[in-house]
Amino acid sequence: QVQLEESGGGLVQAGGSLRLSCAPSGRTFSSYAMGWFRQAPGKEREFVGAINWSGSLSLYADSVKGRTTISRANAKNTVYLQMNSLAPEDTAVYYCAARGSSWDYFEVRLPRGYDYWGQGTQVTVSS
What we know:
This protein is mainly beta and 127 residues long.
């Protein structure tokens, strides 16, 4: 059974930072593009960013660009989401996802572009 597990969520004050981790189990994801999405209550799942298998390509949503970095350590089979200057509107459940197909700047922005998903981790930003 392939699983992705996110960690690092919690309560953060506005202006603070957090780093989420995503560690797959059941197989290695070093050849997969990885994405991060988030979903706030009552809203659709929203693209945050994505990184290709080697880390040479990345893409970010406008809402987080400039304060967010996605990185990966394939030797550790782990992907990271670093977010700075957090605001209450960043409050959501954050999900990591793995894409087995080749990098596509359009498809990596969409939930349908991914094959595996984690259960999500809650991030709450207090004002």
